[in-house]
């Protein structure tokens, strides 16, 4: 493969082809340190044309390719295996804001643009790009698209699929599809855009995107609400939606276990109540109108909820500082979990109306599988996405819990399936969940997905071992 490395150096420049182990280290270990691989080379193209030439060379040589953006995957979706045969294609040099159209409310960017930079560019143009994630300072638009990222504002603005109008994609054989259209209506055939969004780098490399922009919110109102439980939280969601309509931007749920962990393990997290509630909801509204009117709407909705027994207490943020303190409680849960010990983590979605039943049934399954384990349940209640994490029982060793975790996860995911849900709401399948695809997809779904993969990547050399098992009975890689 030395001839391939030499050709890649001719395409992108020798300085951007990394072959030494020390240089490759940040690219072959995943963000969480769970997966470690090795690579023939890490290639850093600087343009879509260079990506095209790199992939054409890899196709000619029969090389494995692992596309990579900000490398923030929580499922090992952009980490190569340990064979040392893969070319890791890092797009971080491709970071141009290509065009902003404030009239059409669009922004066209390179796939390697960091999410925070896109948000900033939109603000500078007096517009708003709503995707917001904990990793927004390092994740890239290409990775957001490959995983169909969601975040905290899906309730109002949707996932990356809803936020995207057009794509530019280089196929595994080096051909480029220019689908960078800023059209909101295009009823002229199959939506190729939607095929590549959420494909986790298994079908091609997204090199550019046209994204939707929105009027910049001028006012925000936030409240932290104590609720008796998940059923009441769902009732509160209905009340706030009825009173506030599309102004409802975020509706985040967390149990008392979450709040207890945060207040014990995160130094700057403070509850706005005198005692620990059974559960809580963080509600945020946003609008282009004044803050006083928005706060009044929120307060009216909360009064109605209290009178209906759906809320026990509520504190409306008086300023941005207090609102950020509310968000610190929500965002500190993941940090607190790390400090609290080993946990089995699940990123699931179920229909909103099924969420309370799911949590009850999953809790019973957890207690049966691992008595004394503590479910830590939080997430984006308004769009049906829960992070259902399970802390090990205090009497169990980390080794014993790690050994029991796969069976525990299977039980949780069985409950998800009974409620017609998904085992991956926003974190992706990657290599973490690839072995579970046959349990959550029908044979026909897997056959169709496999057939699409084979059409675009006949040798199954693009990001192998991710999303689709290579030994699927419906379709096998071409020898």
UniProtKB/TrEMBL annotation:
<dbReference type="InterPro" id="IPR016171">
    <property type="entry name" value="Vanillyl_alc_oxidase_C-sub2"/>
</dbReference>
<keyword id="KW-0274">FAD</keyword>
<dbReference type="GO" id="GO:0003824">
    <property type="term" value="F:catalytic activity"/>
</dbReference>
<dbReference type="GO" id="GO:0022904">
    <property type="term" value="P:respiratory electron transport chain"/>
</dbReference>
<dbReference type="InterPro" id="IPR016166">
    <property type="entry name" value="FAD-bd_PCMH"/>
</dbReference>
<dbReference type="Pfam" id="PF02913">
    <property type="entry name" value="FAD-oxidase_C"/>
</dbReference>
<dbReference type="InterPro" id="IPR006094">
    <property type="entry name" value="Oxid_FAD_bind_N"/>
</dbReference>
<dbReference type="InterPro" id="IPR016169">
    <property type="entry name" value="FAD-bd_PCMH_sub2"/>
</dbReference>
<dbReference type="InterPro" id="IPR036318">
    <property type="entry name" value="FAD-bd_PCMH-like_sf"/>
</dbReference>
<dbReference type="InterPro" id="IPR016167">
    <property type="entry name" value="FAD-bd_PCMH_sub1"/>
</dbReference>
<dbReference type="InterPro" id="IPR004113">
    <property type="entry name" value="FAD-bd_oxidored_4_C"/>
</dbReference>
<dbReference type="GO" id="GO:0071949">
    <property type="term" value="F:FAD binding"/>
</dbReference>
<comment type="similarity">
    <text>Belongs to the FAD-binding oxidoreductase/transferase type 4 family.</text>
</comment>
<dbReference type="InterPro" id="IPR016164">
    <property type="entry name" value="FAD-linked_Oxase-like_C"/>
</dbReference>
<keyword id="KW-0285">Flavoprotein</keyword>
<dbReference type="Pfam" id="PF01565">
    <property type="entry name" value="FAD_binding_4"/>
</dbReference>
<protein>
    <submittedName>
        <fullName>FAD/FMN-containing dehydrogenase</fullName>
    </submittedName>
</protein>
<feature type="domain" description="FAD-binding PCMH-type">
    <location>
        <begin position="35"/>
        <end position="216"/>
    </location>
</feature>
<dbReference type="InterPro" id="IPR051264">
    <property type="entry name" value="FAD-oxidored/transferase_4"/>
</dbReference>
């Amino acid at each position: 493969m030395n001839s391939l490395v030499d050709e890649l150096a001719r395409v992108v420049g020798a300085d951007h082809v990394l072959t030494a182990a020390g240089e490759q280290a940040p690219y072959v270990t995943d963000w969480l340190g769970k997966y470690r691989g090795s690579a023939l080379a890490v290639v850093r193209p600087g343009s879509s044309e260079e990506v095209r030439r790199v992939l054409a060379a890899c196709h000619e040589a029969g090389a494995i390719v692992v596309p990579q953006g900000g490398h923030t995957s929580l499922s090992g979706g952009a980490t190569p295996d340990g064979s040392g045969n893969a070319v890791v294609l890092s797009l971080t040099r491709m970071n141009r804001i290509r065009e902003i159209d404030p009239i059409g409310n669009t922004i066209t960017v390179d796939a390697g643009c960091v999410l925070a930079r896109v948000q900033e560019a939109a603000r500078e143009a007096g517009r708003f790009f709503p995707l917001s994630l904990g990793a927004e300072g390092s994740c890239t638009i290409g990775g957001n698209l490959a995983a169909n990222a969601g975040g905290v504002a899906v309730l109002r603005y949707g996932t990356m699929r809803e936020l995207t109008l057009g794509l530019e994609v280089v196929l595994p054989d080096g051909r480029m599809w220019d689908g960078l259209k800023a059209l909101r209506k295009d009823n002229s055939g199959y939506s190729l855009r939607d095929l590549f969004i959420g494909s986790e780098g298994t079908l091609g490399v997204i090199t550019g995107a046209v994204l939707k922009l929105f009027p910049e919110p001028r006012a925000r109102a936030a409240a932290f609400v104590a609720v008796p439980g998940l059923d009441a939280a769902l009732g509160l969601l209905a009340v706030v939606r009825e009173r506030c309509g599309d102004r409802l931007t975020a509706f985040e749920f967390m149990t008392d276990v979450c709040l207890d962990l945060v207040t014990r393990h995160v130094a700057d997290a403070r509850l706005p109540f005198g005692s620990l509630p059974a559960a809580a909801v963080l509600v945020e509204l946003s609008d282009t109108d004044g803050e006083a009117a928005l706060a009044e709407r929120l307060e009216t909705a909360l009064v109605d909820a209290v009178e209906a027994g759906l809320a026990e207490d509520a504190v409306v943020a008086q300023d941005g500082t207090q609102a950020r303190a509310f968000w610190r409680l929500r965002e500190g849960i993941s940090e607190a979990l790390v400090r609290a010990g080993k946990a089995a983590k699940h990123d699931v979605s179920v229909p909103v109306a099924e969420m309370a039943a799911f949590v009850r049934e999953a809790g019973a399954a957890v207690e049966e599988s691992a008595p004394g384990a503590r479910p830590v349940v939080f997430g984006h209640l308004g769009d049906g996405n829960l992070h259902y994490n399970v802390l090990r029982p205090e009497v169990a060793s980390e080794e014993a819990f790690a050994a029991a975790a796969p069976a525990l996860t299977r039980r949780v995911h069985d409950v998800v399936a009974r409620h017609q849900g998904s085992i991956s709401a926003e974190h992706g399948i990657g290599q973490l969940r690839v072995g579970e695809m046959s349990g959550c997809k029908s044979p026909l779904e897997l056959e169709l997905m496999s057939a699409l993969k084979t059409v675009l990547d006949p040798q199954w050399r693009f990001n192998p071992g991710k999303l689709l098992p290579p030994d699927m009975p419906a379709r096998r890689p071409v020898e």
